[in-house]
Write a structure and sequence with these properties.
CATH class of the largest domain in chain A: Mainly Alpha
Helix content of chain B: 10-25%
Shape of chain B: globular
Oligomer: heterodimer
Structural class of chain A: mainly alpha
Largest sheet of chain A: none
Number of strands of chain A: 0
CATH superfamily of the largest domain in chain A: MFS general substrate transporter like domains
CATH architecture of the largest domain in chain B: 6 Propeller
Order of helices and strands of chain A: HHHHHHHHHHHHHHH
Strand content of chain B: over 45%
Distance between the termini of chain B: 75 Å
Strand content of chain A: under 5%
Helix content of chain A: over 70%
CATH topology of the largest domain in chain B: Neuraminidase
Number of strands of chain B: 27
CATH class of the largest domain in chain B: Mainly Beta
Strand order of the largest sheet of chain B: 14-13-18-17-16-15
Largest interface: A-B, 68 and 61 residues
Structural class of chain B: alpha+beta
Shape of chain A: globular
CATH superfamily of the largest domain in chain B: TolB, C-terminal domain
Chain lengths: 415, 337
C-alpha cells in the first residue's frame, strides 16, 4: 500500500530533508526553455486577455461563438499534441518540432494585426495558435526531461513551470498597461505580442541546444507501435491509469472560482484576483515542491497534491468561512498545481525510455487534459441538473476513489 | 560571445525597438486623436446642444468612420428628417454602447486599464455619475421615462479561466440616483411554468424597458434554451413568456418585440425576427445574414441594426430588403422628439 503516513516514508522524508545532499542541478537548457515559455506566455496571455474585448467592442461580436468553436477544438488539440511528441521522437528533433509550434503561434499574432475584422479569419487564427501550442508542449517537455539528471527531474520541471506561470501572470498586466497608454490600439498590442513571441522563438532556436543523447547502438526508427507500446509497460501504464483516474475527478478552476465568488457574493470586478492568487501560489511553489518530489518521491507528492484538491472541495462544500476560507482554498489550489502539473511529467519522464520521451509525455499530457475536459463537462452537468453541492460531493467521493486507485497503481513504483 | 548569442542579442534589440516603436507611435496617435477630437467636439458643441434641446428627432450613435482616426469610436449625433439621418456631428467622448431617453443616457466604456464603467449622462450628454461594470460591456438600454438603465456585460474573468467559459451579467441602474439597483441573476426571481428558475447556469442579457416605468423584458438562458422574460422592477419578479428569444427590443407602440432567434446551433446562427406579444406570432425579417445585435426601433414600422461597420434599416413586418442607413455607425439610439 502506498501510504503517506507510513512511518517508513516519513523517516525517509525526514532524512532526505535534513541530510545535506548534493544541490539539485537546474540545467541551462531548462532555464532557457523556461525563458522561452515565459516570453511566449506573455505574448499569448496578452492576446487572450484582450480578445473578448476586441471581439465585442471593436467587431461587435459576442464571445459565444468563440466558446463553442473552442469546445469543438479540444479533440483536435489532443491529436496535435500526440503528433508533436511522436514526430519529435521519430525525427530525433524535439527542438525543430517545438520551434515550429512556437513559430506558428508567433505568426498568428502578426496575422491578428493584419486580418482586421473578419470573424472567420480570427477564429481560424485562434485555432492555428492553439495548434502551435499543442504541437510544442510534448517536445518541449521531452527536452526538459532529456537535459535533466534523473534525480533532478522534479526540480527542473518545477523551475520551468514557475517561469511559464510568471509569463502567464505578466501577460495580462502588459496588455492592460498598453491599452491604458493607447486605448483601443489593438493592432499595436498584437504587434507587441508578436515581438514577445519572436523573442521567445529566438531563445529556443538560437540559444537552446538539442539535448545530447546516448548514441543508440542500432539507430532504429521510432514506430507508432513503439510509442503506443509504452502503455504495455507496467510502470508507465500504472501512471497513465493513475493520472487518468485523478483527472476524471478534477473540476476546472473556473468552477472553483465561480463557487467561491457566489459563496462570498464577491464583486465581479475582483474576479480576476482569484486567478491571480492561484497562479501566484503555483509560481512560487512549483520549483520547491518539484525539488521535494525529487527527494521524497514523485508519486507521494503527486498524491499529496490531489489531497490538497480534496481539501479545496471540502472547503467549498462546508459552510462558508468567508475570506479566510477563500484564501485557504486558493492557496491549496495553487499548491495542488505545483504538486501535480510538473511533477506528473517528471514522474512520467522517469519511466519513459529516452528515445520515446516525446510520445510518452504527450500520451501522459493528453490523458490528463482529456480526462479533465470530460470531468469539467460532467461537473457542469451535475451542477446544472442538481446543485453545486451535489457536483462537489460527487467529485470529492470520486477523487477519494481515484486516489485509492492511483495509490494501488503506483504501489511499488520507486524512483 | 558565440555567433548564436550575438544573433540572439541582435534579435532582442530589433524586437525591443519594434515593440517600443509601436507603443510610442500608438500612444502619440492616441494623444493627438484625443486633442483633435476634443477640439472638434468643442467646435460642434453649440450645434449639438441645439439638436439636443430643440425637440426635433435625432439619433445618437458610436461613430465608426475610419477616415478620421480622431473621431473613431466616439459619440456622434445626427438630426433625423423623415426617418433619414442628416450630417453627423461629434458629440462627446468614447462610448462603446450608448442609449438616451427623456434626458438621461448611458455611455459604456473603459475605466482605467482594467475596468469598465457605465457613465450616466444628462440631457446635454455630460457625465453626472458612473457605475463600475463587471466585464466587457455589450448592450445598454434606457427606460423611456429616463429613470432606469440596463447594462449587459460579459464576465470573462481572466484568461486563466477555461477559454470560452464565461457568463453574462445584466445590471439595472437607477439613473436618477446614479446607483446600481441589482443584477437579474442575484436580485430577481424568475419563474418558468410556475416554478422558480434556480439553475446555476442561468444567464441574462439584452434588457428592454416598457414606458410604464416598471416592466422590462430580457433574455434568460439556461442549458441550451433561451427565453423571453417579462419582469416587474418594483416586485423584483418575472416569468418566461416565449422561447428562443435573444436581445429583445420593444417596439415604440409596445405591441411587438424585435429580437434575434437562433435558427442554427453550434455555432449559433441568428436571424432577426419580430414577435407579436398579443398573438405570439413570429415574423422573420428581411435580413438574410446571421447577425448579432440588439435591434433599435426607428419607428413602429422600421428597425435598425448593425451589419459590418454600418447601421442598416429594414421594415419590421418582414417585407422589403435591408438598406444601409448610416455608414460607419453602430449602437444607434433614436430619440423621437
Amino acid at each position: 500500500m502506498y501510504r503517506i503516513e507510513s512511518s517508513g516514508a516519513l523517516v525517509r522524508a525526514h532524512r532526505a530533508l535534513t541530510q545535506r545532499r548534493v544541490r539539485p542541478r537546474v540545467s541551462r537548457t531548462v532555464l532557457l526553455l523556461g525563458l522561452c515559455s515565459l516570453l511566449t506566455d506573455i505574448s499569448s496571455e496578452m492576446v487572450a486577455t484582450v480578445l473578448p474585448l476586441y471581439l465585442v467592442t471593436t467587431l461587435g461580436f459576442t464571445p459565444f461563438m468563440y466558446g463553442i468553436v473552442d469546445g469543438l477544438y479540444q479533440g483536435a488539440a489532443a491529436f496535435v499534441r500526440l503528433a508533436g511528441g511522436y514526430v519529435g521522437d521519430r525525427r530525433r528533433k524535439h527542438k525543430g518540432v517545438a520551434a515550429l509550434g512556437y513559430g506558428l503561434s508567433a505568426v498568428c499574432k502578426l496575422a491578428l494585426a493584419a486580418v482586421g475584422s473578419a470573424f472567420g479569419a480570427i477564429t481560424a487564427i485562434v485555432m492555428v495558435d492553439r495548434a502551435g501550442k499543442g504541437l510544442r508542449t510534448a517536445p518541449r517537455d521531452a527536452m526538459i526531461s532529456l537535459s535533466s539528471r534523473p534525480e533532478d527531474l522534479g526540480t527542473n520541471f518545477g523551475v520551468h513551470r514557475a517561469l511559464d506561470t510568471t509569463g502567464a501572470l505578466l501577460g495580462p498586466l502588459v496588455a492592460f498597461g498598453l491599452l491604458a497608454l493607447a486605448p483601443l490600439a489593438f493592432d499595436m498590442l498584437f504587434i507587441v505580442s508578436f515581438c514577445f513571441a519572436v523573442a521567445g522563438v529566438g531563445v529556443l532556436v538560437l540559444l537552446v541546444r538539442e539535448p545530447a543523447r546516448e548514441p543508440v547502438a542500432a539507430p532504429e526508427p521510432v514506430r507508432l507501435r513503439a510509442a503506443f507500446g509504452l502503455l504495455s509497460g507496467r510502470r508507465f501504464r500504472a501512471l497513465f491509469v493513475a493520472a487518468t483516474a485523478l483527472g476524471l475527478a478534477t473540476t476546472s478552476d473556473a468552477f472553483v472560482y465561480l463557487t467561491l465568488q457566489q459563496e462570498l457574493e464577491l464583486d465581479p470586478t475582483l474576479f480576476p484576483l482569484l486567478f491571480t492568487g492561484t497562479a501566484l501560489t503555483f509560481m512560487l511553489l512549483a520549483a520547491p515542491v518539484g525539488r521535494l518530489a525529487d527527494r521524497v518521491g514523485r508519486g507521494r507528492v503527486m498524491l499529496a497534491g490531489y489531497a490538497l484538491l480534496l481539501g479545496v472541495y471540502v472547503v467549498l462544500l462546508g459552510p462558508s468561512t468567508g475570506v479566510a476560507g477563500m484564501l485557504v482554498a486558493l492557496f491549496m489550489l495553487g499548491a495542488y498545481y505545483a504538486a501535480t502539473d510538473g511533477v506528473i511529467m517528471a514522474f512520467g519522464a522517469g519511466h519513459i525510455p529516452e528515445h520515446l520521451q516525446g510520445s510518452g509525455l504527450a500520451l501522459l499530457g493528453t490523458a490528463v487534459s482529456t480526462s479533465r475536459l470530460l470531468a469539467s463537462v460532467l461537473f457542469g452537468a451535475l451542477w446544472t441538473l442538481f446543485s453545486v453541492q451535489a457536483a462537489l460531493a460527487v467529485f470529492a467521493g470520486g477523487l477519494v476513489l481515484a486516489m485509492i486507485v492511483a495509490a494501488f497503481a503506483l504501489k511499488g513504483s520507486r524512483e | 560571445m558565440s555567433r548564436r548569442g550575438l544573433a540572439f542579442l541582435l534579435l532582442s534589440v530589433v524586437c525591443t525597438l519594434v515593440a517600443v516603436g509601436a507603443v510610442v507611435a500608438a500612444a502619440q496617435r492616441a494623444r493627438d486623436d484625443e486633442r483633435e477630437s476634443e477640439r472638434a467636439a468643442a467646435v460642434a458643441r453649440p450645434t449639438v446642444e441645439r439638436l439636443l434641446s430643440d425637440g426635433q428627432p435625432f439619433v445618437l450613435f458610436r461613430n465608426l468612420d475610419r477616415t478620421d482616426g480622431s473621431t473613431y469610436g466616439r459619440l456622434a449625433i445626427a438630426p433625423l428628417a423623415h426617418g433619414e439621418p442628416g450630417a453627423r456631428l461629434l458629440a462627446g467622448e468614447r462610448c462603446d454602447r450608448i442609449d438616451l431617453a427623456a434626458g438621461r443616457g448611458l455611455c459604456l466604456g473603459t475605466a482605467g486599464p482594467t475596468g469598465f464603467k457605465a457613465k450616466v449622462l444628462d440631457s446635454g450628454l455630460r457625465e453626472t455619475g458612473s457605475v463600475r461594470l463587471a466585464g466587457v460591456p455589450s448592450r445598454t438600454r434606457v427606460s423611456p421615462d429616463g429613470r432606469y438603465g440596463a447594462v449587459t456585460s460579459f464576465v470573462t474573468g481572466h484568461s486563466y479561466a477555461d477559454v470560452g467559459q464565461f457568463s453574462t451579467a445584466a445590471t439595472i441602474i437607477d439613473l436618477e440616483r446614479g446607483k446600481k439597483v441589482g443584477d437579474l441573476e442575484n436580485d430577481f426571481t424568475i419563474t418558468h411554468d410556475g416554478k422558480e428558475v434556480t439553475a446555476r447556469d442561468r444567464n441574462f442579457w439584452g434588457v428592454t424597458f416598457s414606458r410604464d416605468g416598471d416592466t422590462f423584458y430580457a433574455t434568460m438562458a439556461t442549458g441550451d434554451t433561451t427565453y423571453l422574460i417579462k419582469v416587474s422592477l418594483s416586485r423584483r419578479t418575472g416569468e418566461t413568456i416565449h422561447e428562443n428569444v435573444e436581445c429583445p427590443a420593444l417596439s415604440p407602440d409596445e405591441t411587438r418585440i424585435g429580437y434575434k432567434k437562433a435558427v442554427g446551433h453550434d455555432p449559433p446562427v441568428w436571424r432577426f425576427h419580430v414577435l407579436d406579444l398579443a398573438t405570439g406570432k413570429e415574423t422573420p425579417l428581411a435580413e438574410p445574414e446571421p447577425l448579432d445585435d440588439q435591434i433599435e426601433w426607428l419607428d413602429d414600422d422600421h428597425v435598425l441594426y448593425r451589419s459590418g461597420e454600418a447601421t442598416w434599416v429594414m421594415p419590421a413586418d418582414g417585407s422589403g430588403a435591408p438598406q444601409r442607413w448610416l455608414a460607419g455607425a453602430d449602437s444607434p439610439a433614436v430619440v423621437r422628439g
